[in-house]
Amino acid sequence: MTATLPIRDNKQVRRLAAYFRKIGQLRNYVLIVLCVNTALRICDLLRLTWDDVYDFGNGRFRENVSVTEKKTGKSKILALNKRVIEALSAYRAEAAIGGVIFVSRNGTNKAISRQQAYRIIRAGAEALAFAFRVSCH
Questions:
Q1: Where are the domains of the chain?
Q2: Which residue in 17, 18, 32, 78 has a CA-CA distance of 20 to 30 Å to 11?
Q3: How much is the pTM?
C-alpha cells in the first residue's frame, strides 16, 4: 500500500483549490482554502458552523474565530484572512446558511465525515495527476 503524504507544494495546493472552484464544487474549494489557511486539524475544521465565522447580527464575516481543539482540548483564536473570507463569501451565496459549513449531502445539517473529506481531497489530487496519494494532514 502506498503511503499518504500531505501536500507541501503551494502550487499544488493552489491547483487543487482552483480545480474544485472550476468544476463548481464550492464546498470542496472552501474546504481546501480553510485547511491551508487555518492549519486546523480536519476534525476541527469540519465542526465549524456558520455562526462561528459569520456575525448574522452585523451581516459580516468575523475577523477571528474561537475554536476548541477536539484532540487537545486547547482553545485557539484564528484570524480569518482575506482569502478565507473570499472563499466563504463565494460559498455562502449557494450554501444553506445556518448550522455546519461543510454539510453532507446525506443528512440535514450533518457535517461530512473526515473520511469523506479525505476522499474529496484524494479525488481532486487524482484528477490533477499528483504523483503521490494525499492526506488531509
A1: 8-128
A2: 78
A3: 0.86
